[in-house]
């Protein structure tokens, strides 16, 4: 099954994290490949790294739009490691019941990964494992092959009133 | 902060679970009050009950629309315990950094809890703790007082193609 969490609203990543917890509770083996997320910054990282049956990989920890002094070229280079990991999982025998590809939609949007090649690998992987892809702006080609697509739609957000991101809620 | 996860799409509960994991990772104390969810059925229950700093309460485990031989009257009676727990948390000094009220929107929709009284308690609680309320059909009165509202919007769902709920994904 191929699941996509997209949209401008909150909940794409937390829903994937919740899905990991649900899957682990059912005895699934899980792999999380995270992009653009600084280490030991997000609260969930501290809990997830302690859980059994979960392999956690983090690549391209800094996105050039968020962190100064990171070039598009550097981000693109680092995303190659994530692409290679995805390629390994797609081409080798099934290792995980669930694979979460966090913020891969952003890597595709920003052309840090080649769209057709990445989507081909995701499709291949989803034929043996459940796969969740998160990030705003999911490409239409990915939506077309997905089984379940949810748009997290922002109805109301405190950022629009100038409230800053809060520890424990946004990270 | 008062957060509402609503809409017909997937991800309302899993996003709340992910939020719990994030909050626990930041050292928050968390309380989860769950409605209409059978024990040891959902994968997340097996993981959450093992985590520190999380108090987990489950009331009205059977919803009459899902489980035969449960009357509306019985569900309504059992929801009183959840209302009383909410009342206790709202009226006593702050005990938790985050309180998750799972499927409370459904209890309000089905009139198992009195709407105005419940929303007053939620508002009071959200003045000292972060509160997340989940469930489709969030009442307008709750949306009006919330800080952050996300609609999980179904773009594509395999149920519409006749696929059954899958272990590790839907429960």
UniProtKB/TrEMBL annotation, chains A, B:
Its EC number is 2.5.1.17. One of its GO terms (biological process) is cobalamin biosynthetic process. Keywords: Transferase. It comes from the Bacteria. It catalyses: 2 cob(II)yrinate a,c diamide + reduced [electron-transfer flavoprotein] + 2 ATP = 2 adenosylcob(III)yrinate a,c-diamide + 2 triphosphate + oxidized [electron-transfer flavoprotein] + 3 H(+); 2 cob(II)alamin + reduced [electron-transfer flavoprotein] + 2 ATP = 2 adenosylcob(III)alamin + 2 triphosphate + oxidized [electron-transfer flavoprotein] + 3 H(+). It holds the Pfam family CobA_CobO_BtuR. Signal peptide: none annotated. GO terms for molecular function: ATP binding; corrinoid adenosyltransferase activity. Pathway: Cofactor biosynthesis; adenosylcobalamin biosynthesis; adenosylcobalamin from cob(II)yrinate a,c-diamide: step 2/7. Belongs to the Cob(I)alamin adenosyltransferase family. Required for both de novo synthesis of the corrin ring for the assimilation of exogenous corrinoids. Participates in the adenosylation of a variety of incomplete and complete corrinoids. This is corrinoid adenosyltransferase. The lineage of its organism: Bacteria, Pseudomonadati, Elusimicrobiota, Endomicrobiia, Endomicrobiales.
